[in-house]
Amino acid sequence: MKLTILSTSDVHGYLYPTNYSTPDNAAPYGLLKAATVIRQQKQAAAADDWVIAIENGDLIQGSPLTSYVARHPDDQSVFTQLTSQIGYDVGVLGNHEFNYGLDYLRQCEQDRNYPILGANISGHAAPTIVDAPCQILENKGIRVAIIGLTTAFISHWEQADHIKNLKFESIVPVTKRLVDKLRNQVDVIVVAYHGGFERDLQTGEPTERLTGENEAMALLKAVPGIDALVTGHQHRQIAAVINGVPVTQPGERGIVVGKITLQVENGQVAQPTAELLATADAPVAAALAAQVAPLEQKVQAWLDQPVGRNAGAAMTVTAPLQARLHNHPYLDFINQVQSDATGTAISCTALFNDEVQGYQKQITLRQILNSYVYPNTLVVEEITGADLKAALERCASFFVRRADGQIEVASEFKTPKVQLYNYDVYRGIDYTFDLRQPSGERVVRLQYQGRDVTPLQKLKIVLNQYRGNGGGNYPMYSADKVVQEYPLDMTELIQHYFEVHPTVMAVMPENFQVKY
Fold first, then answer.
1. Is the pLDDT of residue 401 over 90?
2. How far apart are CA 65 and CA 14, in angstroms?
3. 29, 50, 183, 335: least CB-packed within 10 angstroms?
4. Does 343 share its domain with 231?
């Protein structure tokens, strides 16, 4: 029998092929396109072939559509209504599934006809969101076990009340126990992991700090007996066979579908292959599109609501690298909102990706949600001057000065996963980077209220909760330094700011300089 394992991951609520930048935007991705590819693969399968489909997490958060759905409970079952009709056999939870809390997650899981797997998720609340650690499927006498796993690093990012009574364990010992148990019960073991690779696929050298966020290479090394591995989380496009195990990672937003094939005969697995199927040229699944069209129309109308006006410096972002290198009125405005909401003078924020366009003169909800793409809440932390300087040195390492004097983004922030959101710009301090200096010695000026910041000086700073928990390799920020938490997410705080200040006067900040 030829066994095919199809997968999507990190769709992030992009159902239609649009990035929502304009009402008529057309993009080469989306779950409705991936649905067509999955159906085509199933229809093309021979009578004796078996096609299994896996939804590998981060489905229900991440797009303007999900921002709308999070505020409208009647629409929250749309995701699993679609995936059930597409024909997924199992699902896995991603880290962003928890961003709006467990009640929202349970609402989104309604009306599905497949199990959610989570072998490394335990605790009192686990049975309310996870059906089983694994699922055994059988077809024509062939038994396939699918083990579902989620990155164990969630507790380092997520708000505590969103994961109350849950525990996330390292995937390696959990999987080893299950594989040892299942090996003599089934013909094929498939692991579906919402996590990625912590080491280079060819050399095995670490590509990031080994925090446990991504453990796929450790899993393959420590747990023999895995026949296929589906990964995600990093938004990479991977199709490879590693030490005989076929591996896929299908990007984000449904831009590709992962495809693994195996030949299974007499309990033996052979001829493993891995590939990615592009969805760009696939039409949207017409029946599914018609089903969700009313929701899409409501979302598009909701996004075009005017919320405010800018009468100051331009907040449109046209040169992302320059915005990071010299600060920008849009970033300064976000920092102003954070400071205003918390009464905290020092604030930092990020230009999350190069798609961020900022705001026009007339500002709509569409612009807000397309520019601030995460449901971050805020925390205020009490830190030392040494902590602040260490954070700024981390930011300064974002840049590389080439021999010709030009500046580019350091490879650490681009590969293997693009992490532009891990560079921050600050408000409320005056600081200078000298990129001619070695990394770790680039902060040559750091002042607060006109005076040099000293290492033991106590300071308060407002950050989003991801950064406040140390996310992005910022260990100087941590939950034990939090002195206050703010439950509203940033897009709501931005809207509230415009309700009080319907016209804003954006300015080009002058507190940050770079020498190169």
1. yes
2. 7
3. 183
4. no
